[in-house]
Amino acid sequence: MAKSRRRFPAQTAATLAAAPFISTTATRAKAQASRRLGVALCGLGSLSEHQIAPALQKTRHCRLAGLVSGTPASVAKFQAKYGVPDRSVYGYDDMQRMADNPDIDIVYVVTPNALHAEHTIRAARAGKHVFCEKPLEISVERCQSMIDACRYAGRLLGTGYRCQYDPHHLECIRLVRERVFGAPVILQAGFAIDVGRPDQWRLQHALAGGGALMDVGIYALKATRYLTGEEPVVVSALETKTDPVKFAEVDESMAWTMRFPGGAIAHCSTSYRIDGIRNLRVDAERGWFELDPAYFYDGNHGRRSDGIEIRHPAIDLFAAELDDFAQCILEQRPSKVSGEEGLRDVRILQAIYESARTGRAVEIGG
Amino acid sequence: MAKSRRRFPAQTAATLAAAPFISTTATRAKAQASRRLGVALCGLGSLSEHQIAPALQKTRHCRLAGLVSGTPASVAKFQAKYGVPDRSVYGYDDMQRMADNPDIDIVYVVTPNALHAEHTIRAARAGKHVFCEKPLEISVERCQSMIDACRYAGRLLGTGYRCQYDPHHLECIRLVRERVFGAPVILQAGFAIDVGRPDQWRLQHALAGGGALMDVGIYALKATRYLTGEEPVVVSALETKTDPVKFAEVDESMAWTMRFPGGAIAHCSTSYRIDGIRNLRVDAERGWFELDPAYFYDGNHGRRSDGIEIRHPAIDLFAAELDDFAQCILEQRPSKVSGEEGLRDVRILQAIYESARTGRAVEIGG
Q1: Which residues form the Gfo/Idh/MocA-like oxidoreductase C-terminal domain (chains A, B) (predicted)?
Q2: In chain B, which residues have their Cβ closer than 8 Å to the Cβ of A265?
């Protein structure tokens, strides 16, 4: 990691601008013909097994076409279930071989947070588009290196913000944009989970980069941004830790407050200690609406102050985000969950950590 | 006010300790005989007219026995409705005459925040017990002067925290105390109202001492204290203002976060701009519970993560708090909504304002 990390900043914007643009014509023509882009799953943990691989079966524009893993048993299980050929199976260290594999168009990076840059950049250098789980990475610099690498390769980078495909969230966004209840005044969002076993990578700072805030608090943060359509200008945060052994390396519980330029204020909380708060609420000038639960894979629903329920048929959010990403590639348009979007959240996450550490409100720069 | 304010600090604890203790025996004997203590309403605004005076008719241990006002029309209205005799009607400047009126045991101060000390001290000097609306006053020093004056006079001082008599809140307190869902991890509380007309005293700093935070945010603050049973150790706050004309002198919207010594974290919000958030929620180790609405005169109710509803028959909260205060006097026991309790909240309110002003987390001293 350390070696890779040092290498990335050398790719400055100037260098990239001068670099040759790699045409996506061949990929596009093939994909448009078959209507399905090949997706390689990079990281075969629980999320890939239980959510993403099954979701790929439900997509219209994608198919599971490759595997990247360091765990032979996982590879065997995925191959047996999904029939991925041996020639499309890779280790993390030989992803460059993908360059010769026309079956793979997209690499979906589902590895621990602090490996996202390494795996994304390898995929991009192999000429693949990259869809990466949230958080995009553990620092702004690493996020930028991923954006740069994909831009240099002429490939698209997306961030796995599935909630932006949830019709409940889309309905909430519409309520704000159309000022159905007027301008938002107070936003409230929180997501807390019992993280479970103490021996997992999520509790190791080197791999996770942070704890509850980076993993689930990010949902609350992101929601306040896409709901207001604004970038917060200042954040103030407090941390609390009740189990300093289990949470020796990462944050256990955090609460933070943000002010938006339009005058709205958001207060958010997160925790790794409990399955608890998982809501989203907007109090606007003439009414309010809320989702609770807001961030589940399914079962999200909500209500409005005028008595109207917010409830839509469940859709597979992973299938939806992947189909949209494939369409962005096919239609050569930007993704609403771009790498830049992922970077913006990481910048704010870092400001939240800084505020919690220093006890000072932190202004968030561009 | 300025004159009175300068006078109070001169009453030091040492002076008070040396002062003669005024016996309450006569008052107590009379009251126990009749079972009803005479209450004089000091301030005949909307709260007195629509809530407190009607509530007094429902009490078991009190009766409306006196009026203090500077508005003859209000006095006439109250006299006509409740038959208060002329001899028990006072102006703010001649409350000392109450000393000779055995019909009045308690003065309920319902005037603007920054007049509470003046009116409380006058009532105490006339030998009356004082029940004072929240916030107790607009500074810690003024709160202390009220506590000192009542102690010097040998009279009880209570703060109008009606929610601590709401069976829904009492149920929530029990859920935490008995650890029904384990220890609290994240508390969330907010209360926002559309304050209404721009020409009222609540928007004048000299009379109100603050805006939304002092008036309704205090409910959220207080709730986090009586739910945890702990005092917050540090607070971090942000303010936002969208209407700098209407809210030129006081805070419009605030969000703040507090950490408690047991490790719980609370995030709270308040606003004068909108009728919005009015909830209370505790996410604990093994479940959660919430009230929404939590702070209304009636209609409060809630739910628990185990599916059990929190719903009790409505009671008159003003009658309940007054009956308890009367019983405290009769039984010579302290009130759970003491003046000291009122002071503690004002100290935290000041820390919240300081944090919002300075952009720094503020530690809350004892």
Answers
A1: 175-364
A2: 238-240, 253-255, 269
